Amino acid sequence: MTPRTLFDKLWDAHQVKAETESTPGVLYIDLHMVHEVTSPQAFDELRARGLKVRRPDRTLATLDHSTPTLPPDADGKRPYYTQEAEAQVARLEANVREFGIDLMGWDSPQRGIVHVAGPEVGATQPGMTIVCGDSHTATHGAFGALAFGIGTTEVGHVLATQCLLQRKPKSFAIHVDGALQPGVTAKDLILHIIGTIGIGGGTGHVLEYTGEAIRAMSMEERMTVCNMSIEAGARAGLIAPDDTTFAWLEGRERVPKGAAWERAVAHWRTLPTDEGATYDREVRIDASSIQPSVTYGTHPGMVVPIHAPVPAAADAVEQRALDYMKVTAGKPIAGEAVDVVFIGSCTNGRLSDLRAAAGILRGRRVAGGVRMLVVPGSEQVRRDAEREGLHEIFRAAGAEWREPGCSMCIAMNGDLAQPGQLVVATSNRNFEGRQGKGARTVLASPLVAAASAVAGRVTDPREYMNQEAAA
Amino acid sequence: MSSTSRPLAYVHSRTAVLRNENIDTDRIIPARFLTTTERTGLGKHCFEDWRYAADGSDDPAFPLNQPQARGCSILVAGRNFGCGSSREHAPWALLDYGIRAVISSEIADIFRGNALKNGLVAIVISEAEHRWLLDNPGVELRIDIAEGTIRLPDGGVVRFDLDAFSRHCLLNGVDQLGFLLQQQADIAAYEQRTEEAA
Ligand code: SF4
C-alpha cells in the first residue's frame, strides 16, 4: 500500500462518499462541539425543516463566549454584559433541551471554553473528525484528530446529517527540530511559525507538526501549538498521537475503558504518518533558535523576538498597523508600557499556563496602574488551580481571579480594554479592536505576560527566571 | 429565514475597493455584535469600527462611504480577505450591507466556504489582474457565474475558478442541506460499518 500521512488516514477513514469532479465528498464527523454564538441560526434551520439532530450522542455543547466571568450576585443573577448575551445563552439552553444534547452548562463542573473542556472530559480522541462553529477547533488536532472550524450553515449540516460536504485540502508538514530553550514556550514556537510562513501561509492546507521538539511537548503545549494553526490560515493542525497522548487521556470520563481502551490504543498507534509518505509542502524550523516572541502589529504574523527591533513597514497598510499600535520601527517591543495583562483563552488558559504565570508572580506584585485578569479555561482548570493555591498567588499579586470563559480573548462578554490601552494577552488574535475598540494587543506567552505585569512594561521573563536560579 | 439562497447567475455592478490586506472577520463584523440570534440585520454593523466617526456619523475617509462606492455590490479587497474566525456573521453582514461578490487574490478558506453557502460570490483571481482592479476602483464589472468570467468595461475578460459544485449551487440556488439529506442511506451504512468495527 502507498505510504500515507496521518492526515490521509484520517481523511480516508471518514469518507462516506468520495469526492468527484462535480461534487465534494461526504465526510463523517465523529464529534460536534457546539457553543452559544454560532449555533442559534442552525437550530432554527432544523426547526424550520422539521429535522432532528441525527446523533445527539456525538454532539456536546458548552457555554463560553458570551458568559460573564464575574460570579452571580446574592440572588444568583449572573452579570451578563447585555440582555442579548443573556438571551443567546438561554437560547442554547432551550435548544439543547429540545434536541436532547448534553450541555456543560452553568450547573456543570465541566463547563469551560469549548477547546479546553472537550479534551478534558475525554470527548476529544485520536483518529476522530471533530468540528465546531469556531475556528480554533484546530486545538483538538493535538490528539491526532482532524479538527476544524465551520460556519453556522455547516453547523446545521452536521446537526442534521452528522456529515459535511468537503474537498480534501493539501498537506503541509512543519518539522520542528532541536529543543526549546528555557523560558521559551509552545506559544513562542507557534508565533514564530506563523511569522515564518505568514498568516496566509497555510491557506488550503492541513498542517502536521512533527519533529523532536513536538514529541518532547506535553499535551497542553501541543494544544497551544495546534490552536493557532488558523492564524497561519490553515483550517487544521495535527500532531501524531503517542504515549504522551494516551497517558493524558487514560481514565477520562468519555474515553473507552478496559478492553475497549486497549483496542482503541492499538488502533491509534497505527495513525502516525508512514515512512516514505509525502506532503504537498514542508518547512523545517530550528526550535533552539527561537526567543520569547511577541506581536507588534495587528495580525498574528507581525511577530518578532522580544528584544528584536520592530521591522520597518513594507507598505502603507503595515505603517497603519504600526501607527495603530503606537510602536516605532527600529525599537524593540520589550520596554513598551503595559496597561492590561490578560492570561487565559483556549490558547493559554490551561493549568500549566496558570502555573507558569504564577511562578513569576509568586512573592511579587503587579505593577501600579496595571490591570491583570487571570481567567481559567474551564471549571476543571479553576478547581485544579485553586487546589494548588494559584488563585491566592494571583490575588496576592493584585490580579483579578475570574470565572472560566473566553473573556478578553474576544471581548464580547464585557471583559474588554479601553481605547488606546496596551494589552499583553496570552490569547490568539491581535486584530484591531479584538479586545475592545481601539485596544492594542500584544500576543505573548503566559511567562511574558506575567513578567510584563510585574514590570509594567513588556518584559523578557528570563530576567525573573534567572534571578530565581541565582537565588 | 432559511439558508437556501436564490439562484444567482450574474453580478453586475461598479466596484468598491478596500486595498487593505488581511481584512479579518473582526474588521468585517466586530465580536460585540455576535450576540444576535438572527442572520439578518448585521449590515448596519458591517465594518463598524472603520466606517463611523466618533460621533456616529459616516467617516468620509472610509472608502465605502465615498459617493462613488455607494450602491456597489462588488467589493475588491486586498490579499487574504476574511482571515480570522469562522463566524458566518461576516458574509451575513456583507450581504445585508449590499455586497454580492468579493474579489481578491487570496480569500481565507472558512470565509470563502461560508460566503458561497450564502450566495455571496467569493472570487480569487491572479495577482496581476487583482492589482489592476485595486488600482482602478469604480469600474463596471459583469460577473458571469456559469462561464466563470469577469467582463471588464473595455471588453476584456478575466477568468476565475469556482469548483463545479459551488457553481452549480449558486446557479440553481441549491440547498446543500437538502443534498446531504439525500445521502442518508449511505450515512447510515457508514455508521453501521464503522461502529460495528469499533
Ligand atoms: S478563547 Fe478566544 S479563540 Fe478560544 S474559543 Fe474563546 S473566543 Fe475563540
From TrEMBL, chain A:
GO terms for molecular function: 3-isopropylmalate dehydratase activity. The keyword Metal-binding applies. InterPro entries: 3-IsopropMal_deHydase_lsu, Acnase/IPM_dHydase_lsu_aba_1/3, Acoase/IPM_deHydtase_lsu_aba, Aconitase_4Fe-4S_BS, Aconitase_4Fe-4S_dom, IPM_dehydratase_rel_enz, IPMI_cat. Heterodimer of LeuC and LeuD. NCBIfam families: leuC, PRK05478.1, PRK12466.1. Belongs to the aconitase/IPM isomerase family. LeuC type 1 subfamily. This is 3-isopropylmalate dehydratase large subunit. It comes from Luteibacter jiangsuensis. The gene is leuC.
TrEMBL record, chain B:
Its EC number is 4.2.1.33. It is an enzyme of class 4 (lyase). Keywords: Amino-acid biosynthesis, Branched-chain amino acid biosynthesis, Leucine biosynthesis, Lyase. Residues 16-127 form the Aconitase A/isopropylmalate dehydratase small subunit swivel domain. It comes from the Bacteria. Transmembrane segments: none annotated. It catalyses: (2R,3S)-3-isopropylmalate = (2S)-2-isopropylmalate. One of its GO terms (molecular function) is 3-isopropylmalate dehydratase activity. Pathway: Amino-acid biosynthesis; L-leucine biosynthesis; L-leucine from 3-methyl-2-oxobutanoate: step 2/4. Belongs to the LeuD family. LeuD type 1 subfamily. NCBIfam families: leuD (TIGR00171), PRK01641.1 (NF002458). Heterodimer of LeuC and LeuD. Catalyzes the isomerization between 2-isopropylmalate and 3-isopropylmalate, via the formation of 2-isopropylmaleate. This is 3-isopropylmalate dehydratase small subunit. The gene is leuD.
